[in-house]
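Q: Predict the bound structure with nickel (II) ion.
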Amino acid sequence: MADTATSAPPAGWRRLRLIVWTLAAVAALLLAWLVLRPAPQPGQLQSTPTSVTLGGPFTLTGADGRPFSSAQLTGKPYAIFFGFTHCPDVCPTTLARLASLRQRLGQGDDAVRILFVTVDPERDTPEAVGKYAKLFNTPIIGLTGSRAQVDQVARQHAIYQAKVPEAEAPDGYTMDHGATVLLFDRAGKFVATIAPEEGDPAALDKLKRITA
Ligand code: NI
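A: Predicted complex:
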């Protein structure tokens, strides 16, 4: 009787060896990817592959009820923030912070324009965004538009926004929205973001960069 142990390995064993080697190769590739992939930069929007995709031409409605075109922004750096006038904390906090940062920059109210775009155009009429923008005692450009226009501008800036039913809220809903501020230079080119959790010195440095 032939001794199978000394001849070629059985087909099942060879298949197992192939599987083990394949798994080892996959693990090695995964490890190489983990080690070699570029580390994300702080303040960089990680959901967007390149900064080139942020911003772009848009038309909204100003507090005076007239169309507001992004073409009106060229020549001056600006900070753009999305929110809604019924927002209890994030929006007023962020706008007050931007106003204070601009003051600390010491180049006047004209150095960086602050844009507030509502993600709640159903409630935030031109008059409502205008009144809200005035609460901060510094020039803030309040903008609204049709639902489609607002959706487009939020998408262009990679800002998440969604209507959320909430029984206790006025009109039975609230808005979820991204709280990142995006900064553009005088040529309308995206430069950096300011995250809510980011410290003031870093945020101020970024404002200096767009006004340089
Ligand atoms: Ni808000």
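A: Residues 11-36 form the longest helix (26 residues).
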